[in-house]
Description:
The chain is about 5% helix and about 50% strand. By secondary structure, it is mainly beta. The chain folds into 2 domains: about 1-40; about 40-469, Porin, CATH 2.40.160.100. The longest helix has 19 residues, at about 20-40. InterPro entries: Alginate_export_dom.
Amino acid sequence: MHFLSKNADDIYCQLFNMKPIFKTIIFGLTASCFYSTASAQLTVSAQLRTRTEYRDGLGAPLPKDENPALFTSQRTRLSAGFSTYRLKLGITIQDVRVWGQDGSTINRTTTQDNNGLMLHEAWAEIGLTDTSNKRYSIALKLGRQEIIYDDERLMGNLDWPQPARRHDAALLQFNSNQWMIHAGFAFNQNKENASDTKYNPTPAGNYAANTNGGSMYKSFEYLYAGRKYEQGNISFLFFSDQFSKYHNDITNDVPSKVWDNGTWTRFTTGFYTINNFNKINVSASAYYQFGENASGEKLSAALLSANAFYKVNKKFSVGPGIDYTTGGSSGNKSNAFDPLYGTPHKFWGLMDYFYAGSGFGNKGLMDYYLKAKYAASSSCSFTAGVHQFNSSSSVYNNNGDKMSLNLGTEADITANYALTKIIGFEAGYSHFFSTASLTSPGVKNITNAQSNNNWAYLMIKIQPSFNFK
């Protein structure tokens, strides 16, 4: 207290007459604060993505008596990132709208479904090891975040739909030059309850929460381990997600689900690898799913995938691939594989007939495809693909007779052009030749469906970014 009562000059003198050990502490703390501030970096970025779509059978064949749809949707994002000693922060606010959705003089949301403004990301990454350690790092990442691994087949940000995907989760991360080992955890609640942990997994507006049109998970835990080597990498995933138990009831003569205590648990485990052999790029994956699904059914399902891409020259690449997912059921056990929280738009056709929210009777899929890419210049490229889709389980008509396993053929072509580093254009056209098996009651269940389905789009992406040090 005697020291604190002195005037400023006395304090100044006292500081410089301290014992060496106290001088070291004071100047060390001062230097540390200065270093932390001086090394901080702020990044601000924005995105304006408009997409005009012509839909004449997107997601499912259109009945012959219905007209095609035409609209423009827009995603607007504002992101900020902050990085300093042992800390990274990320925040993304986004708004998703359809042009004309709001009246030109209305400045407030009139319905829940029209409310497109949301917090897409809000996370902090805390460095648990000092940044001077160059061999490895351990960090804890908390908050709302995108979770992406490997080729995004099972875990991706689903960036093609304008709202995209994110999770409220905690990740413990170990990263080194060769290894990436992550453990993730999530536990969802609808609100701050005074008691109980029952969870209603149905999102507002009754939107699908996963890639196969299922409900939102109650919780999840996972372990991901990936290792890089000279010609590629290999990874292992063990993912466990839980779903709220329920029983069916009737309220006001309307069937409904009543959510109960407890959960059903599903397990997914397997491997992914990608290898580069001179001009050939080969990737493969194998996953097995067991436990119980979101409906409480016993589960035994699998996914197998393999593809090769050959670089003919600097501009042209081409290659085949095959995907197989089990489907159907055997006794009281479901064999329908669910691709978790991935990005199906990248794999099973751009028209999103399979594993993209539009169900197909849990039939499973055989997808034989051929894809090609041509880079006309550094700013212009074209991609094309042809898919032959077959059901991996039996298909029946209304009379109980077996039908062909052929679900249809899809052809896709896209073009990308970068006007500048922050302005890009993308256009695409897809055609789906559907079959009677695809529209049968046990698959898409569409009567009087057209056999030729079309989809076209034009997308403009503007993405400026600024760094401040």
